[in-house]
């Protein structure tokens, strides 16, 4: 963040920087009125305002005088209207002081938009830490944390009477010690430590004397429902009269967990939902409800990491390796890191749960910042499915063409005698990727240049179309060799279901994809073909499973391919009954398959972390990705200090966007991030070059 300049406004006149004492203030009807000087006869109060502006050189606090009529409402955290360089802006008051270090005349606040303090100090401190960690703008993080104001919703919130929340009773906490066959004893000890951890983040003396805040990763055993694990953690670990925040990958998981919690006798009125897909009114209403401290449980997607509950006792996160947790807007924070920073700043216990383990949580375990709550080997052997490979030697030419080996089909046939079977595929659609039969060039749309797919609609012949823009591509001709015949490159759920219907006739087939999800299937003989994350649940579990696209999962582009593949396999395997056969389309000596056979998520994460150390990739090192015009990227790198010991990879051109990508690492990762942010602000202030996008520890290196 740039150095603090308390002048309130900056402008440019004739190529030189000018301050507030040289700029007039536009009145309500466009007229001019002078800036308000510092009063001499009474005590004047001043507000430091965070201004709504995307400009990097305005990423700091500005001092404004508080008019006497606004003193009662001008409190830290409220929305205000101001003027800067003659232009109206909105912002938040970060703090209120009795003096200002600026010696000139300060502009007054124009208005207080709302008396509600929607940006409490704890969330502002968290946003500042996230911005520093990701070399971003503080306002960009605050924009992610605080939803847009909805005036009518706010009026209803202020007018409603206080409810008698003391009358709401939660169910008794489960006795985890008597459930040793279900949950590891280490989990019980951890949750006891959470219950006894004091709320000390407001008391520095107690903070220094308090025991370390408990933080851990819990590898949930296979065949155990994740909803039950989270419910047990909430009931047994949430301290009395304190709230818990639970982060989940998407809205379906939020709805599923809420139903499970209500079924477990947790009062629905004590649960608040924060999801990005809610409408503006509902999202703002839920945000205000959390801000009031009324709910005792907050469920949500990645944005809920900033939930402004004033009395937190526990932070939970399910399946932290899911790519949905990576924010798509600047400064691109990951929800896992946001929760980690919040746990550190506010001294709140943190628990991550999942069937797999991410390299980042493994790194925290290795450094001692996290505990590793893993089930015993006896428990794993009792609950895991029997995983085995499908070797090439056991495939016929027909099976090779269809990806379905005889051993896998035999396991599915046996499993169908007693219940449903699961087949997890990598893609939806029929043939989602096609190529020219003659030259093997991938078929792309002439309009948007994305891959063409073959669909098989009921009652229609196969139709070649673009799944992105929907353009009809009848009469397609290869741009390389003018060929008109196509071959399949990738096979989707539709084609897989068609092939299984031929090999296993007489059984019903259901396909569950993002376009047509299925939540639940009956415990009857049924073939279920599902894409990753769309597997329906069953009451007793699947009797057999097959992963025909496991090799394709490992061959996917991107630095996260192996981690994501193993996570998908674990999430599919957990649906199977204990001892059920699971065939995986990989050679037996594949390390990821061996980890799945042993059900060793910690070992897989440790191996992945070791490989990333050798390749100097996150989370082993801090990595900064710069994207922009080549001249601007090169100039920004040249502007960095020479003592950083930079290692640069690139620039790599991107012809479609006429930009380049460059990856930077350094011996001191924190110093590199700070230097990049300072260079961005410095160049924006001097108006040098085009903007450059900065991503710290990106999940996509392409």
Provide a descriptive summary of the structure in words.
The protein is an alpha/beta fold. It contains 20 helices and 30 strands. The strands form eight sheets. A seven-stranded parallel β-sheet has the order 12-13-11-14-15-10-16, sandwiched between helices. It has a six-stranded parallel β-sheet with strand order 17-26-25-18-24-23, with helices on both faces. Strands 6-5-8-7-9 form a five-stranded antiparallel β-sheet, with no helix packed on it. Strand 28 and strand 29 (659-665) form a beta hairpin. Helix 1 crosses helix 9 (335-346) and helix 3 packs parallel to helix 8 (280-291).
Features:
alpha/beta; six-stranded parallel sheet; 30 strands; about 700 residues; disordered N terminus; seven-stranded parallel sheet
> What helical percentage do the residues reach?
25-40%
How many H/I helices?
20
Would you report the number of β strands? 30
Silhouette: globular
Low-confidence stretches: 1-41, 396-401
Overall average residue pLDDT: 84
The Rg value, from CA coordinates, equals 29 Å
- Characterize the main sheet: 7 strands, parallel
Which percent band covers the strand fraction? 15-25%
* Spatial strand arrangement across the major sheet: 12-13-11-14-15-10-16
Secondary-structure-based class equals alpha/beta
End-to-end distance, in Å? 28 Å
């Amino acid at each position: 963040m740039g150095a603090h300049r308390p002048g309130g406004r900056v402008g440019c006149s004739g190529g030189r920087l000018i301050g507030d004492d040289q700029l007039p203030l536009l009145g309500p009807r466009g007229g001019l009125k002078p800036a308000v000087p510092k009063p001499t006869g009474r005590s004047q109060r001043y507000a430091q305002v965070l201004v709504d502006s995307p400009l990097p050189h305005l990423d700091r606090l500005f001092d404004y005088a508080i008019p006497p009529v606004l003193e009662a409402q001008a409190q830290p955290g409220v929305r205000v209207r101001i003027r800067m360089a003659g232009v109206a802006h909105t912002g938040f008051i970060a703090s209120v002081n009795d003096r200002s270090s600026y010696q000139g005349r300060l502009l007054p606040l124009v208005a207080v938009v709302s008396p509600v303090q929607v940006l409490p100090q704890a969330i502002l401190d968290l946003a500042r830490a996230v911005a520093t960690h990701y070399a971003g703008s503080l306002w960009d993080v605050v924009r992610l944390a605080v939803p847009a104001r909805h005036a009518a919703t706010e009026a209803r919130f202020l007018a409603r009477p206080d409810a008698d929340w003391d009358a709401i009773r939660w169910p008794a906490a489960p006795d985890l010690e008597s459930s040793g066959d279900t949950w590891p004893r280490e989990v019980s000890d951890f949750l006891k430590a959470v219950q006894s951890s004091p709320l000390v983040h407001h008391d520095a003396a107690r903070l220094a004397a308090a025991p370390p805040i408990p933080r851990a990763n819990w590898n949930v055993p296979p065949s155990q429902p994740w909803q039950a694990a989270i419910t047990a953690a909430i009931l047994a670990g949430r301290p009395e009269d304190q709230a818990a925040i639970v982060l989940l990958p998407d809205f379906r998981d939020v709805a599923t967990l809420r139903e499970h919690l209500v079924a477990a006798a947790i009062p629905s009125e004590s649960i608040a939902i924060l999801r990005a897909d809610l409408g503006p009114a509902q999202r703002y209403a839920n945000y205000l409800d959390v801000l009031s401290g009324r709910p005792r449980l907050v469920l949500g997607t990645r944005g809920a990491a900033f939930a402004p509950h004033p009395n937190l006792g526990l932070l939970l996160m399910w399946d932290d390796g899911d790519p949905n947790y990576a924010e798509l807007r600047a400064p691109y924070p990951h929800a896992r890191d946001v929760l980690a920073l919040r746990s550190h700043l506010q001294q709140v216990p943190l628990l991550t749960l999942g069937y797999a383990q991410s390299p980042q949580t493994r790194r925290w375990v290795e450094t001692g910042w996290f505990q590793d709550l893993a089930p015993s080997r006896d428990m794993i052997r009792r609950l895991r499915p029997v995983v085995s490979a499908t070797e090439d030697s056991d495939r016929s030419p027909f099976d090779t063409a269809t990806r379905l080996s005889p051993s896998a089909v035999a396991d599915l046939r046996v499993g169908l005698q007693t219940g449903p079977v699961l087949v997890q595929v990598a893609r939806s659609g029929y043939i989602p990727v096609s190529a020219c039969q003659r030259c093997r060039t991938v078929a792309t749309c002439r309009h948007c240049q994305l891959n063409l797919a073959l669909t098989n609609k009921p009652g229609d012949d196969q139709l070649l179309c673009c799944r992105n823009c929907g353009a009809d591509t009848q009469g397609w001709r290869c741009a390389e060799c003018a060929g008109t015949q196509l071959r399949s490159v990738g096979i989707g759920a539709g084609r897989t279901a068609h092939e299984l219907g031929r090999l296993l006739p007489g059984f019903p087939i259901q396909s569950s994809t993002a376009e047509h999800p299925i939540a639940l299937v009956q415990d009857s003989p049924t073939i279920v073909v599902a894409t990753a994350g769309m597997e329906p649940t069953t009451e007793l579990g699947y009797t057999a499973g097959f992963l025909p696209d496991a090799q394709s999962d490992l061959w996917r582009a991107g630095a996260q391919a192996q981690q994501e593949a193993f996570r998908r396999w674990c999430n599919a395997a957990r649906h199977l009954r204990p001892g059920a056969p699971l065939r995986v389309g990989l050679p037996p000596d594949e390390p990821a398959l061996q980890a799945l056979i042993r059900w060793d998520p910690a070992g897989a994460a440790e191996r992945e972390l070791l490989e990333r150390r050798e390749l100097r990739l996150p989370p082993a090192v801090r990595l900064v990705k710069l994207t922009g015009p080549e001249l601007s990227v090169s100039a920004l790198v040249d502007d960095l200090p020479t003592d950083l010991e930079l290692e640069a990879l690139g620039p790599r051109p991107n012809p479609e966007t006429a930009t380049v990508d460059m990856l930077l690492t350094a011996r001191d990762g924190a110093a590199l991030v700070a230097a990049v942010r300072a260079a961005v602000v410095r160049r924006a202030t001097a108006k040098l070059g085009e903007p450059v996008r900065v991503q710290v520890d990106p999940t996509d290196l392409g």
